[in-house]
Amino acid sequence: MSLVNDKRQAAWFDADPEVETGGAFAGVVFNRPMDLVLTYRVPERLRGVVRPGQRVRVPLGRGNRPAVGYCVRVDTVPPDGVGPGRVKDLLEVLDDPPLIDAAMLELTRWMAGYYACSWGQALDAVVPAGVKKRAGTRVGTFLTVPEEVRRARESLELPAKQAEALAILCRSAEPLTLSDLCRLAQCAPGPIAALRQRGYVHTVKRRVGRGAALSTVGEPAPDAVQTAPVLTAEQAVVLERLDPALQGDAFATFLIHGVTGSGKTEVYLSAIERVVARGREAIVLVPEISLTPQTIRRFRRRFDRVAVLHSHLNDVERHRHWQNIASGEVQVVVGARSAVFAPARRLGLIVIDEEHEATFKQESTPRYHARDVAVKRAQLERVPILLGSATPALETWRNAELGRYVRLPMRERVGARPMPAVELIDLRHERPALGGLSEPLRRAMAAALDDKGQVILLLNRRGFHTFVICPKPQCGQVLKCHHCDVALTYHKGRRLLICHTCDAERDRPPACPHCRAPHLHYGGIGTERLEREIEAAFPYHVARRMDSDTMRTPGSHEQVLAAFRAGDVRILLGTQMIAKGLDFPDVTLVGVVNADTALHMPDFRAAERTFQLVAQVAGRTGRGDRPGRVLVQTYSPDHHAIVCAARHDYEGFVAQELPEREQYGMPPYGRLVRLIARGAREPTVRDYLDELARALKAAATPAVQLVGPAPAPVLKIRNLYRYHLRLRCASPRPLQALWQAVAPTLPPPSGVELAVDVDPVSLL
Ligand code: ADP
Ligand code: ZN
Question: What predicted TM-score, i.e. pTM, was given to this entire model?
Answer without folding.
Answer: 0.86
